[in-house]
Amino acid sequence: MNATSARVGNGNHRAWTRALEVTARATRDPRRTLPCALAEWAESYGDRPALIGEPESYSFVRLFNRTNQYARWALAQETPKGSTIALMMRNRPEYAAIWLGLSRVGIVVALIGPDLQGAALAHALHVADARIAIAAPEGAAAMRAAGFGGEIWTYGPGERQLDAAVDLYSGMALAEGDAPDVRLDDRALRIFTSGTTGFPKAAEVSHRKAIAWTHWFSGLAGLGEEDRLYNCLPMHHSVGGVVAVGAPLVGGGSAVIAPRFSASRFWDDVARHECTAFQYIGELCRYLVAAPTHISERRAKLTLALGNGLAPVVWSAFSQRFPAIRVLEFYASTEGNVWLYNVEGRVGSLGRLPPFVAAKSPIALVRFDEDAQAPLRGADGFCQPCSDGEPGEALGRIAGDAASRFEGYSDAGETEKKVLRAVFEPGDAWMRTGDLMSRDSDGYYRFVDRVGDTFRWKGENVAVEEVAALLSECPGVVDALVFGVRIPGHEGRAGMAALAIDGRFDLAELERRLEALPRWARPVFLRFTDEIARTDTFKPKRAFYVAQGFDPALSGDQLFVLGESGYLPLALDLFAKIAAGALRL
Questions:
Q1: Do the Cβ atoms of 162 and 155 come closer than 8 Å?
Q2: pLDDT at residue 241, rounded to an integer
Q3: Beta bridge partners of 566
Q4: Distance (Å, whole) CA 94 – CA 105
């Protein structure tokens, strides 16, 4: 069966049952962690390519052998089961070999972003609670500068050179008794949130999660031996480092690992490696749509795009430009217990859960109090479920079974903040996603906003995603970010939009399109820029823009303010009047 035919019918019952069957088999043995599954794959798939990248590539057998070398190295360091080693490197196949090998013997691997520096890096290392770190040479220098006092092994030149040390150990399989007893419910990884609104938190990831993620997505997407999945997402995050690496291996396929995403090299890469699928985060697809036609597009064999966060306007444009590529959108978070899957390809939807899945992983939408920034409670003290089409915060039930477990963060206080108790009855507990969604009568969910992104202006709630979607449809608007800013003398927050624009942009056309919105929903301020600043997972740095606000001296970009007859340039004298509360807007 070829890669395309294996995925035919993924929009029906078969895709769901296949994912359930594959995952159930994978998690039946409590000692079958992902590193142990790799031993089975090495025996089954042998010298077939597993991880393809730069500067190394691994067959299944060589990858298995390499993980055993790292496992033996870790044992030689006398690091006890449950202790943490921090890993700070850029994308490459060796990255996966390292964390798979260390976790094989019970080490918790904290995946640190390779671009972190200073206070943010010091915070991550502190939260990780690591006494040993593995880093590329530049990462090692950043760690020392951030005050890390532990032992640092460098992959490459350094005082303790890991690659040279690991080469001395055998790659043969570990015999029973050579390593601690590691089970699915033990921790495997600490993966940090993106930290778009502050310092990142370290989410706890068990071996059960790692093996369930990889097998579920392999089954849901129907990945097989002929599939090659292109992964250009950061490997220090759950999708780029676990899902996109492991899912194709489950069925004997390959993961092609790129150093980073590049719109200019994307098509050359996928064509050269004959990739049949690629992993995305929504904004990645926006860049592919915006880029000019590439000569290698004709040679590409892509039939599947697997990912999350694809905005409806980008989804439609992507499907029109690349009709041969089916989109499999999902919703998830590293720490969360709420997962949705859109195997039917319904544009703009996060997905749904069939009844036989929802019974084990229930999701609830509850009415949200914008003023309190918390779920609304009725006179009886309990939360109120939303009706079809009504937006509310999505909650995931916390129970003892694996499907609804909430593993939380390394910080118990941060974990407790995510738990909502006595939601529908005394004693129940649900995890807060922090996302506002709506559900239609067919059971499909749509994203509305992040909690805290929606703001009140002129006594009305402004949903930033709805405004951003309208702005994005205007010719010349390449990217749009909407947020609220405080104005002295005014209640609530005024809308502001940062817009990345190109030569096609016309302000008059934007003003005409904004007439579709009520006056209170139109952005009071506009900021025109060449590019929206984003994290390494393409999430906009909202806090950065909120902090600069509408001050011309801070932004360095063109700013406009909404007047009675349209948008006016925001000169310094006009800004001074607004900042002093001397003008009503």
A1: yes
A2: 97
A3: 563
A4: 17
- Regarding whether 295 and 380 lie in a shared domain, the answer is no
Which residues, including other chains, have CB under 8 Å from residue 376's CB and lie 6 or more apart?
A: 366, 367, 368, 369, 383, 384
299/423 same-domain check = no
Place of tokens 């859109």: 342
In a domain, residue 344? The reply is: no
**pLDDT tens digits for 264-281?**
999 999 999 999 999 998
The CA distance from 203 to 128, in Å, is 10
CA Rg value for the chain: 25
| Domain of residue 542, residue span | 457-579
What is the C-alpha separation between 66 and 98, in angstroms, rounded?
Answer: 8
pLDDT < 50 positions in the chain = 1-11, 196-197
Q: Examine residue 585 and state whether it is found in any structural domain, yes or no.
A: no
416-436: b (≥16 Cβ within 10 Å) or e: eebebeebeeeeeebbbbebb
Number of domains making up the chain: 3
Q: How far apart are CA 248 and CA 224, in angstroms?
A: 7
What are the backbone angles phi and psi of residue 385, rounded to the nearest 5°?
Answer: -65, 150
**Are 539 and 511 within 8 A, CB to CB?**
no
Residue with tokens 């699915």: 184
Model's pTM, two decimal places?
0.85
Place of tokens 């390959």: 254
Instruction: Supply the pLDDT for residue 9.
Output: 41
Do 292 and 422 share a domain, yes or no?
no
Report the residue count for the chain. Answer: 585
In this structure, are 276 and 376 located in the same domain? no
Tens digits of residue pLDDT in 501-537: 999 999 999 999 999 888 889 999 999 999 999 888 7
pLDDT of residue 220: 95
Q: Please give the Cα distance from 354 to 356 (Å, whole number).
A: 6
